[in-house]
Specification:
The chain has a single domain, classed as Gamma-glutamyl cyclotransferase-like (Hypothetical upf0131 protein ytfp). The strands form 2 sheets. A 4-stranded antiparallel β-sheet has the order 1-3-2-6, with no helix packed on it. It is mainly beta. It is globular. The protein is built from 2 helices and 6 strands.
């Protein structure tokens, strides 16, 4: 059964290649992905992972990946568990990346995680 909604995912932190949670996303990715930005602010949680709040004039840097359509429901269920969406730590929302269209992304669900704003909007430049 296919999941409703976009079949792309915008990642900005530990789900990016070379980061500690990339291995959770990699099996579901089709292609190399594209560099992209999304409107929002990025925060260092102080816990070795970032948190995003989408919207506003600032931008968050990341990548957009196409997810395998035939495994989309499995991918989203797995990533929801990894990202703490089940516990409300993050919420999966749709965003409008600079690459066009719509993509899923994980937005902070706990304001206590918003410790220090990363003015660059890029987790990799921390």
């Amino acid at each position: 059964m296919a999941a409703a909604g976009p079949h792309h995912l915008f990642v900005y932190g530990t789900l990016r290649p070379g980061e500690v949670r990339w291995h959770h996303l990699a099996p579901f990715v089709v292609g190399e992905g594209l560099e992209a930005t999304v409107a929002g602010e990025l925060y260092d949680t102080g816990l070795d992972y970032p948190a995003a709040v989408f919207g506003g004039p600032s931008v968050i840097h990341g990548r957009v990946y196409e997810l395998a359509v035939d495994r989309l429901a499995d991918a989203l269920a797995h990533l929801d568990a990894v990202e703490g969406a089940v516990r409300g730590l993050y919420h999966r929302v749709t965003v409008a990346p600079s690459t066009g269209g719509a993509a899923w992304a994980y937005e902070c669900g706990d304001q206590a995680l918003l410790v220090r704003r990363l003015v660059t909007g890029d987790w990799l430049s921390r």
